[in-house]
Amino acid sequence: MITMNTLQSNLQGSQDSINAIILTIDDMDSNDSGDSLAQILLLQQALEDLQLDLESSIVNLDSRLNETRAINDFSYLDFQGAQLFNFNNGLGNASLSYSNFSDASFRNANLAGGDGLFSTFYNTDFSGATMYQGIWRQSEFNNALFVGSQLSYTEFRYSDLSGANLSGAVMYGGSDWLMVNLSGADLTNTWMYDVDLRYADLTGADLTGARLAYLNPSYGPADITGVTWTNAICPDGTHASTVGNTCANNL
């Protein structure tokens, strides 16, 4: 908006100059000075050209601003199979809510601050994506890939990540994963610090080598039926291998 204001100020200055010259020309109507009049007319033409350029610049800038406002809004659309990987800056704060992104790819994309509420992400690839401070509530991520993704400060409350691959993903900072379905998920070598897993379904999930810390015991038990805890570090700091390869009593 600073650029827009500057252009508008320049335009107003040019218009004032043109108006002043027009008044000067009117005053010179009775003065037969051909050279002076010719010079003023040339200057007037130059200023009018500048005005047209500035007006065109403002129109173009306004159009670009409108496009920028809309470029990150993917809500209510069908992007099944879309290839949106390697967007390092263009998808920050994007809205992917109420849309279908099944089989799409967001590999290494920057989705920081984005949202995806009530959307479908079956088999979607988020590997290496930056998704911190995102809200992905009540969406379907069945068999999605989050390998090495940055998921800190995220909310996946009530979402279905069954069969998803989150190996090496990083989650911390009070991430809200309340009642998330992680059944059959690959959580190997995942970092889960200060994540709310109350009532999460971890049936058959593999947490081999996962690091779990600072999970508040008051959050209550998750469904851990069939979970693989081999070499995992339990939330209370206990190594699973020292307690029968289970964290059932160390949540």
From TrEMBL:
InterPro entries registered for this protein in UniProt: 5peptide_repeat, Pentapeptide-BTB/POZ_domain
Top-level taxonomic group: Archaea
Protein name stated in the entry: Pentapeptide repeat-containing protein
